[in-house]
C-alpha cells in the first residue's frame, strides 16, 4: 500500500488547478485505495490529520461514502463507518465553529459527512434484514440525526479539554457516548438552548436537516417502495426541524426568548424549501397522515409582510414569495384553505368568501412591494411575482367560475364581480408586457381557463344572466389584450436591447397565447360580440386620411385586430357565412384599411433590425387576412380587384426593394405569393373573366430570366394562373386550350432560348430551366380537380373537352414532348436527376386521373414508354432510375388492361434486367425499388407478373437468392414479395393455379433459403420472415412441413430443436404466437440467450 | 377517457402553457359544441435555425389514446410530408413514439415536440418510412435539400 503521504500528495495533485500528472491515472489509483479493505483506515487518517488541507479531508469523507456503498455488509464494519462519520463530523464542526472564517473551507467535508450520515439514516431505517435480526447490538432504528448531533456536539463543546479524544475512535468513552447518542431525546428547551448558543450551531443544525431531507427526497424519487422511514421522519426529525425553522422564522417577529446571537439567514429558506418539497412528495404515501406545514406557512406569511424597502429592500419578501411560488406551482393544496384565503387578501386585497373583516393593510404591503419593483425596474422579480400570483389564482379558477356564473353557491354576486374587477385591473397593468410587466402575460392562462370552465358548465346550473356576465367580462378581457399585443410594444422591446432575442420571442409567444385565448372566447362571445367588434374596429373609419403624426400607432392597432380577426375567421367558410359577409359589407373601410396596412408595411424602409421584424409581422398579418377574406371577395368584385392589384404591387416592390435584406424580401415574397395563390384558387370563377389576361401578363414578366423572383414564386404563380384557366370552361374547350397553349408556349420558348445558348451553361441557368419545367408540372397539377369538385359548365361539355384533348388540335403534348426529349437528350441536363424527375412528373401527370377526365397532359402509353426506353440508356441511371420506376409503376396501373404480357416483359427487361448485374443488383436501394415495383404490379395487375416470362427466369431466381441477404431493406422487400406472391387476394383462378405450380416447383428451395436467411439474420430482422413462413404454412401446409423437415438439418444439426419447431409451428395460430415460435427456434439454434 | 389519461393531459396542457420552446405551439382541438377535445391536439414545429428546415412551421396532429400515458400518442405530420422517417400517411417514425421501443409514460409533450424538431434535420437512415425522401437523402443530397427547402416555403412561418 502507498504511504499516507503519497496518497495525500496524489489527492493534492488531483484537486490542483493544473495537475502535472495524468488525472485519469491518479483517479484510478485513488479509487483502488478507496475501495480496498484499508479504505476506512485511510479515511480516518485523512480526516484526523491536522496538517491536511480541506481537499484531503473532503477526500477522506468521500472515501467513507465509497466504503458505505461497497463494504458495509457486516454490522461491525457498518458501525465503524457510522461512528467514524459521527466522530469526524462533530470534531470538524468543532474546528469550524472555533473560527468560521479561517475554517470556511472545511464546510465541504462537513457537508459530505452529513450526507454520509443521511445515507446511514436511510439505510438503518429502511433495511429489512436489520429489523429482523436478533442481534441486540444492531441498531434497528435511528430516530433523529439532529438529536444525535446536538447531543454529541454539546458534549464536545462542553469539554474542550477532551477534544483530542475525538481523534481516537477506539476511545471507550467516545464509543459509549456514541452509543448513547443514537436514539437520545433532546427536549425543545435543549434544542433552543443549543441553537441559541451561536449562529454557527444554528446553521450547522439547519444544514444537516436540509441535507438529510434532500437526500431522502432524491432516494424516494428513485425507489418507490420506501415507506417506513417517512413515519420515523414524521415522528422525530420533522418535529425537531419544524421547531428549528420556526425559531428562525419568528426571530424578528417577536424576539422570542431574547435570542440575540441568531440572524435570519438564507439557509432557513433553503431548508424550508427542501422540507416542503419532501413533505409534498410523501404526503400521499405516508400511512401516518401528512406532516403539517401550517405553522411554518403562517410564520412565513407574517415575516413576508414585515419585509420592507427600509429594513431589507424586500429581500426576505422575495425569498418567501419564491417559496410560495414553488408551492402554488407544484402542490398548492399543501397549504390549507384558511392560509390560502389570507394569501388572497395579501395578493388581491379582496376575498372570494367574504369582504367582511378583511385586513387590507396586508394588501397595502403588496402594493408597496409591487411599487418598489416597478420603480426600480426589477422586471425579473416582477415576473416571479406575477407567476406566483397567477399560479395561486389558478387554484381557485373553477371556484371563481362557479361563483360568477352559477347558482350552485348562494354567495354574494357583488363579491365575485368585485373580485373579477381586481383581476381585470391586474391584467391591465399599465406597462409594456414582457419588458416591464408580466401579469398580463401570465393572466392569459387564467382567462383561458375561466372561459373553458364556463363553456363546460351545465346549462341547468347557470344563472339567468350568466350570458351577459360572461360577455361583459370577456369583452373587457379582449379590450385589455388588444393594446397589449400591439407591435408598438414589440418595437419598444426590440429597441430596448436589439441583441436580446429572448424578450422578443417571449412577446411573440404572448401574442400566440392571446390568439388561443381569443379562439376560446369566441365560443362565448360569438361573432356578435367578438368578430363584429374587431371588424368594426378595423373598418369603422378611413385610415388613409390619418395625419402623419400618430399614423403608425393606428396601423399597429389595426394590425393587432387583424391578427386576432384572422385567427377567428380563418376557420370559417366566409362565402357561406352571411353574418360575416354582412358585417364586412357594413364596414366599408375594413378591406381598404387592411390593404392600407399591407401597403404601409410594404413601403416601410428597413433601416434596422427593428423595422425589419415589424415589417414582416405587419405583412404577415395583413396578407393572411387578405387570404382569409378570399371567400368574401368572391362576391365583391371591386374589393377583389383592389386586392389583386395591391398584392401584385407588393410583389413587384419586393423584388425592387434594395433597402431590405434578401432574407426579408424572400420572406415577404413567399407570404404574398401564397396569398395570391389562395385568392386565385378560391376566386378562380371571378378571376376567369377580365383578370385572366392581366394575370398572364404578370406571369409572363415574372417568368423571364431577368425577373428577380424565387423559383417558388414562379411555380406558385403558374399554378395560380392555372386555377383561373381551369375555370374558364363556359366557352368550350378551344378557348381554354388557347390559354393553355399560351402558357405552355411562353414557358417552352424560354426553355428553348436557354437550350439554344452555349453548351457550357452556368449553374443558375440550369436552375432556371429546372424551375420552368417545374412550372409546367405545377400548371398541369392546377388542371386536376379535387374529387368533390363540380363545375356544371364542364360537366355539360365533358364529351367535347374529352374529344378536344384526345385530338389535341394545338399539338400541346407533341410540342412539349419534343421539348422534354431535347432536355433528356442533352448531356448537360440528362445527367442531373432533377431534370429526369420533372420530365417524368410531366409525362405521368394525368396517369392517375379517371379515364373520363380531360387533361392536356394525357400522354399515351406508347408516348411514355418510348421516352423511357429511349432515354434510360443515356441518363445517369444510378440517380434517375427511381423516377423511371415511378413512371412505369403509374403507367402499369393506368394501362393494366391494355398492357400485354409481352409489352410488360419487354419493359421489365429493358428497365431492370438489362441493368441488373451492372447496377441494380449492387445497389440495395434500387434493388428494393425493383422488388417493390413487382409487388405493386402483383397487387394491381397480378396476371402480368404471373404470366411474365421474366418470372421463372429472373424474378423467382433472384428473389430466392436475395432471401438470405445481409441488407435489412432487401430482406424486408424480398420477404414482402414472397408473402404477396403466395397470398394474393387479387389472383384470378388462372393466376392462382400458375402461382401454385411455381411454388410446387420452387418450394423446397424457397423454404431452404428462407430458413437459411432466418438462421443467419440479426434478431431485429426476424419479424420480416414471420409473415412469409406463416403464408407458406397456411397455403401449403403439407408441402411446407416436408420442405422444412428436409431443409432444416442442412442449416444446422439440432434435430430435436427442429422437430419441436415444426410441431409447434403447425399448431400455432396468430402472428405474435408464430413470431414467438420462430424466435425460440432461432435462439435455440444460435444458442443465444433469451431476454 | 380514463381519469389517469384526463389528469395527465390536463397536466400536459398546464405545463406546456407555462413552459414551451419558442416558436412551437400546441393546443387541444375543439369539439363541435365548442368544448375542448383534450385527446386530439394540433401543434406546430418550427424548423431549427440554421438548417434547411428553418423557414417552416410544420403542422402536427397529436392523438392520445385512452390508455395514455401507458401508450404513446399517435403523432402525424400532413400526409405526403417529405422526410425519410415520415410515412406517406404522415405518421412519424420515432423511437420515443413507439410503445415497443423507447416510449415511457414520463415523456412529455415538450420532449416529443423537441424530438420531432430534432428528427427533421437529423433523419435516421436506418429507419426509412418513405421511399422518395429516404432515397434522396442517401443518394442525392442536392435533390433532398431542394425539396426540403420547397416544402419549408409551403409551411412558411
TrEMBL record, chain A:
What compartments host this protein?
Nucleus
GO BP field: protein import into nucleus
Alphabetic keyword roster = Nucleus, Transport
InterPro entries (UniProt xref): ARM-like, ARM-type_fold, Importin_beta-like_NTR, Importin_rep_3
From what superkingdom does this record's organism come?
Answer: Eukaryota
Q: What is one GO cellular-component annotation here?
A: cytoplasm
Question: What protein family does this chain belong to?
Answer: Belongs to the importin beta family.
What is the recorded name of this protein? Similar to Saccharomyces cerevisiae YGL016W KAP122 Karyopherin beta, responsible for import of the Toa1p-Toa2p complex into the nucleus
What is the organism of origin for this protein? Maudiozyma barnettii
From TrEMBL, chain B:
Q: What keywords does the record list, in alphabetical order?
A: ATP-binding, Nucleotide-binding, Nucleus, Transferase, Ubl conjugation pathway
This protein's source sits in the domain of life called Eukaryota
Residues in domain UBC core? 4-157
Q: Does the keyword Nucleus apply?
A: yes
Which residues does UniProt assign to the signal peptide? Answer: none
Asked if the Swiss-Prot or TrEMBL record annotates the protein with the keyword Cell membrane, the reply is no
The record's subcellular locations are:
Nucleus
- What PROSITE patterns does the entry give? UBC_1 (PS00183), UBC_2 (PS50127)
Q: In which pathway does it act?
A: Protein modification; protein sumoylation
Extract one GO molecular function annotation from the record: ATP binding
Provide the Gene Ontology terms for cellular component.
chromosome; nucleus
A GO biological process this protein is involved in? protein sumoylation
Spell out the catalytic residues.
Answer: 93
| Stated family | Belongs to the ubiquitin-conjugating enzyme family.
Name the UniProt record assigns to this protein: SUMO-conjugating enzyme UBC9
Supply the source organism for this entry: Maudiozyma barnettii
Amino acid at each position: 500500500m502507498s504511504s499516507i503521504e503519497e496518497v495525500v500528495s496524489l489527492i493534492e495533485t488531483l484537486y490542483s488547478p493544473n495537475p502535472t500528472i495524468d488525472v485519469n491515472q491518479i483517479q484510478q489509483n485513488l479509487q483502488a485505495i478507496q475501495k480496498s479493505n484499508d479504505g476506512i483506515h485511510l479515511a480516518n487518517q485523512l480526516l484526523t490529520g491536522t496538517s491536511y488541507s480541506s481537499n484531503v479531508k473532503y477526500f477522506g469523507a468521500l472515501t467513507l461514502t465509497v466504503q458505505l456503498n461497497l463494504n458495509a455488509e457486516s454490522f461491525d464494519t457498518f458501525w465503524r463507518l457510522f461512528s467514524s462519520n459521527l466522530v469526524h463530523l462533530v470534531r470538524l464542526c468543532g474546528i469550524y465553529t472555533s473560527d468560521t472564517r479561517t475554517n470556511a473551507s472545511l464546510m465541504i467535508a462537513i457537508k459530505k459527512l452529513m450526507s454520509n450520515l443521511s445515507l446511514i439514516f436511510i439505510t438503518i431505517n429502511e433495511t429489512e434484514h436489520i429489523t429482523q435480526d436478533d442481534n441486540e447490538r444492531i441498531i434497528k432504528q435511528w430516530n433523529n440525526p439532529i438529536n444525535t448531533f446536538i447531543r454529541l456536539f454539546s458534549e464536545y463543546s462542553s469539554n474542550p479539554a477532551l477534544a483530542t479524544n475525538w481523534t481516537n475512535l477506539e476511545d471507550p468513552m467516545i464509543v459509549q457516548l456514541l452509543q448513547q447518542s443514537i436514539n437520545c431525546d433532546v427536549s425543545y428547551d435543549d434544542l433552543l438552548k443549543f441553537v441559541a448558543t451561536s449562529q454557527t450551531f444554528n446553521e450547522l443544525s439547519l444544514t444537516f436537516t436540509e441535507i438529510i431531507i434532500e437526500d431522502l427526497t432524491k432516494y424516494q424519487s428513485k425507489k418507490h417502495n420506501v415507506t417506513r422511514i417517512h413515519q420515523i421522519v414524521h415522528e422525530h426529525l420533522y418535529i425537531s426541524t419544524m421547531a428549528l425553522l420556526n425559531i428562525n422564522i419568528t426571530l424578528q417577529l417577536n424576539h422570542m426568548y431574547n435570542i440575540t446571537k441568531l440572524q435570519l439567514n438564507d439557509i432557513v429558506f433553503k431548508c424550508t424549501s427542501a422540507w416542503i418539497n419532501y413533505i409534498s412528495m410523501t404526503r400521499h404515501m405516508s400511512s401516518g397522515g401528512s406532516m403539517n406545514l401550517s405553522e411554518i406557512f403562517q410564520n412565513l406569511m407574517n415575516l413576508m409582510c414585515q419585509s420592507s424597502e427600509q429594513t431589507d429592500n424586500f429581500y426576505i419578501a422575495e425569498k418567501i414569495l419564491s417559496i410560495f411560488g414553488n408551492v402554488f406551482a407544484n402542490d398548492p393544496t399543501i397549504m390549507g384553505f384558511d392560509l390560502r384565503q389570507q394569501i388572497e387578501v395579501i395578493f388581491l386585497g379582496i376575498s372570494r368568501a367574504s369582504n367582511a373583516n378583511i385586513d387590507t393593510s396586508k394588501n397595502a404591503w403588496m402594493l408597496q412591494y409591487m411599487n418598489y419593483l416597478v420603480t426600480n425596474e426589477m422586471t425579473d422579480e416582477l415576473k416571479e411575482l406575477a407567476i406566483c400570483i397567477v399560479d395561486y389564482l389558478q387554484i381557485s379558477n373553477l371556484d371563481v367560475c362557479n361563483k360568477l356564473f352559477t347558482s350552485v353557491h348562494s354567495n354574494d354576486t357583488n363579491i365575485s364581480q368585485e373580485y373579477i374587477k381586481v383581476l381585470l385591473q391586474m391584467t391591465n397593468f399599465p406597462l409594456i408586457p414582457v419588458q416591464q410587466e408580466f401579469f398580463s402575460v401570465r393572466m392569459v392562462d387564467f382567462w383561458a381557463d375561466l372561459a373553458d370552465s364556463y363553456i363546460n358548465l351545465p346549462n341547468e346550473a347557470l344563472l339567468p344572466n350568466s350570458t351577459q356576465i360572461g360577455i361583459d367580462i370577456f369583452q373587457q378581457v379582449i379590450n385589455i389584450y388588444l393594446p397589449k399585443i400591439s407591435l408598438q410594444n414589440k418595437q419598444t422591446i426590440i429597441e430596448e436591447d436589439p441583441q436580446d432575442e429572448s424578450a422578443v420571442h417571449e412577446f411573440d409567444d404572448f401574442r400566440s397565447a392571446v390568439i388561443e385565448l381569443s379562439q376560446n372566447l369566441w365560443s362565448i362571445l360569438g361573432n356578435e360580440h367578438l368578430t363584429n367588434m374587431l371588424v368594426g374596429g378595423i373598418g369603422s373609419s378611413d385610415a388613409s386620411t390619418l395625419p402623419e403624426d400618430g399614423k403608425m400607432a393606428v396601423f399597429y392597432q389595426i394590425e393587432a385586430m387583424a391578427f386576432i380577426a384572422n385567427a377567428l375567421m380563418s376557420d370559417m367558410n366566409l362565402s357561406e357565412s352571411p353574418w360575416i359577409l354582412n358585417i364586412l359589407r357594413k364596414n366599408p373601410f375594413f378591406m381598404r384599411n387592411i390593404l392600407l396596412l399591407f401597403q404601409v408595411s410594404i413601403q416601410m424602409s428597413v433601416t434596422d433590425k427593428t423595422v425589419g421584424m415589424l415589417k414582416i409581422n405587419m405583412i404577415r398579418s395583413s396578407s393572411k387576412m387578405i387570404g382569409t377574406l378570399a371567400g368574401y371577395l368572391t362576391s365583391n368584385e371591386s374589393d377583389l380587384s383592389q386586392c389583386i392589384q395591391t398584392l401584385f404591387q407588393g410583389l413587384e416592390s419586393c423584388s425592387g426593394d434594395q433597402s431590405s435584406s434578401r432574407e426579408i424580401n424572400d420572406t415577404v415574397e413567399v407570404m404574398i405569393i401564397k396569398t395570391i395563390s389562395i385568392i386565385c384558387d378560391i376566386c378562380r370563377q371571378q378571376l376567369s373573366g377580365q383578370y385572366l389576361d392581366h394575370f398572364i401578363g404578370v406571369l409572363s414578366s415574372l417568368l423571364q430570366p431577368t425577373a428577380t423572383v424565387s423559383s417558388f414564386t414562379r411555380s406558385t404563380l403558374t399554378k395560380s394562373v392555372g386555377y383561373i384557366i381551369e375555370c374558364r370552361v363556359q366557352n368550350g374547350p378551344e378557348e381554354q386550350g388557347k390559354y393553355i397553349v399560351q402558357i405552355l408556349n411562353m414557358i417552352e420558348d424560354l426553355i428553348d432560348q436557354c437550350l439554344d445558348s452555349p453548351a457550357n451553361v452556368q449553374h443558375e441557368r440550369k436552375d432556371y430551366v429546372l424551375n420552368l419545367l417545374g412550372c409546367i408540372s405545377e400548371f398541369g397539377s392546377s388542371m386536376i380537380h379535387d374529387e368533390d369538385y363540380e363545375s356544371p359548365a364542364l360537366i355539360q361539355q365533358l364529351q367535347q373537352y374529352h374529344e378536344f384533348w384526345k385530338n389535341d388540335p394545338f399539338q400541346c403534348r407533341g410540342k412539349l414532348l419534343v421539348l422534354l426529349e431535347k432536355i433528356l437528350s442533352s448531356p448537360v441536363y440528362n445527367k442531373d436527376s432533377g431534370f429526369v424527375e420533372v420530365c417524368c412528373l410531366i409525362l405521368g401527370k394525368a396517369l392517375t386521373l379517371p379515364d373520363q377526365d380531360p387533361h392536356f397532359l394525357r400522354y399515351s402509353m406508347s408516348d411514355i414508354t418510348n421516352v423511357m426506353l429511349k432515354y434510360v440508356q443515356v441518363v445517369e441511371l444510378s440517380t434517375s432510375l427511381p423516377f423511371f420506376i415511378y413512371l412505369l409503376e403509374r403507367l402499369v396501373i393506368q394501362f393494366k388492361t391494355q398492357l400485354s404480357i409481352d409489352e410488360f416483359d419487354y419493359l421489365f427487361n429493358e428497365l431492370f434486367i438489362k441493368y441488373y448485374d451492372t447496377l441494380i443488383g449492387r445497389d440495395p436501394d434500387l434493388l428494393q425499388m425493383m422488388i417493390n415495383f413487382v409487388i405493386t404490379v402483383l397487387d394491381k395487375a397480378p396476371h402480368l407478373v404471373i404470366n411474365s416470362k421474366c418470372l421463372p427466369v429472373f424474378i423467382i431466381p433472384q428473389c430466392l437468392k436475395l432471401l438470405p441477404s445481409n441488407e435489412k431493406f432487401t430482406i424486408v422487400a424480398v420477404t414482402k414479395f414472397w408473402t404477396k406472391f403466395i397470398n394474393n387476394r387479387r389472383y384470378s383462378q388462372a393466376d392462382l393455379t400458375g402461382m401454385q405450380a411455381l411454388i410446387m416447383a420452387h418450394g423446397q428451395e424457397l423454404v431452404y433459403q428462407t430458413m437459411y436467411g432466418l438462421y443467419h439474420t440479426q434478431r431485429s430482422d426476424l419479424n420480416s420472415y414471420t409473415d412469409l413462413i406463416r403464408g407458406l404454412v397456411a397455403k401449403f401446409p403439407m408441402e411446407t412441413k416436408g420442405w422444412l423437415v428436409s431443409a432444416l438439418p442442412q442449416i444446422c444439426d439440432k434435430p430435436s430443436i427442429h422437430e419441436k419447431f415444426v410441431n409447434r409451428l403447425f399448431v400455432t395460430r396468430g402472428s405474435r404466437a408464430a413470431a414467438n415460435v420462430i424466435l425460440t427456434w432461432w435462439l435455440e439454434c444460435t444458442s443465444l440467450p433469451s431476454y | 377517457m380514463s381519469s389517469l389519461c384526463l389528469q395527465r393531459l390536463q397536466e400536459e396542457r398546464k405545463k406546456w402553457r407555462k413552459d414551451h420552446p419558442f416558436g412551437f405551439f400546441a393546443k387541444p382541438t375543439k369539439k363541435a359544441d365548442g368544448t375542448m377535445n383534450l385527446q386530439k391536439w394540433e401543434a406546430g414545429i418550427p424548423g431549427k435555425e440554421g438548417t434547411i428546415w428553418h423557414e417552416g412551421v410544420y403542422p402536427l396532429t397529436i392523438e392520445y389514446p385512452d390508455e395514455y400515458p401507458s401508450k404513446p400518442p399517435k403523432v402525424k405530420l400532413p400526409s405526403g410530408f417529405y422526410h425519410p422517417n415520415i410515412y406517406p400517411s404522415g405518421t412519424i417514425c420515432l423511437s420515443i413514439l413507439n410503445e415497443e421501443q423507447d416510449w415511457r409514460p414520463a415523456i412529455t409533450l415538450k420532449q416529443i415536440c423537441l424530438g420531432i424538431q430534432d428528427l427533421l434535420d437529423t433523419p435516421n437512415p436506418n429507419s426509412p418510412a418513405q421511399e422518395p425522401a429516404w432515397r434522396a437523402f442517401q443518394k442525392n443530397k442536392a435533390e433532398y435539400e431542394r425539396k426540403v427547402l420547397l416544402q419549408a416555403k409551403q409551411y412558411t412561418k
